[in-house]
Amino acid sequence: MRSVALRYFNAAGADFEGEIGECHEPETHLVPLVLGAALGQRPRIDIYGTDYPTPDGTAIRDYVHVHDLAIAHLCALERLRAGGASIAVNLGTGSGRSVREVIAAAEAISGRKVPAQAAPRRPGDPPALVADPSLAAESLGWRASHSDLDTIIRTSLAWHTRHSSGLTRTSWAGHQR
After folding, report:
1. What is the pLDDT of residues 87-114, one digit of tens each?
2. Segment 163-167 long-range contacts (CB within 8 Å, at least 24 positions apart)
3. Do 38 and 29 contact (CB within 8 A), yes or no?
4. Do the strands 116-119 and 45-48 form a parallel or antiparallel pair, or are they unpaired?
5. Structural domains of the chain sorted by starting position, each given as residue range(s) with its CATH number in brackets
6. Burial zone of 113 (CB within 10 Å; 0-12 exposed, 13-18 middle, 19+ buried)
């Protein structure tokens, strides 16, 4: 049996029509947490570590839009259909964004302040974690093309704004589509 293992980095964003997005309890992903704070659905975002050896002191991660991940799945199926050998590839952009950059993008796009507070580092969190997507490009012909931070924030914000009206945090868990 042949397979293609797709190793996602930080999946983020929502579909472009605003129908499918991310919401679960407990929420642990940075983009929905930041947007929840911007929209007043949570009191603040905690920044776990502000003393990393990175340009702004916060952790850097590689965010990949869910639309790009869907395209990667199609590319993987095409590889298998064409008889390609099993392979494991990283899906990311090859560059990272810091926690403070995500917060700044959310503020710029939403026009709202994101309340944030510094918190201690979480044990085991590396300063930076960024994909090397070169094998995905070489073997699948895949490159992230919708994974810029503005697109991720814009699509996530549209989904959260559209689907948060009248919902409490506890009722959100069953509101995924």
Report:
1. 999 999 999 999 999 999 999 999 999 9
2. 163/21, 163/23, 164/39, 164/41
3. no
4. parallel
5. 4-14+27-161 (3.90.25.10)
6. exposed
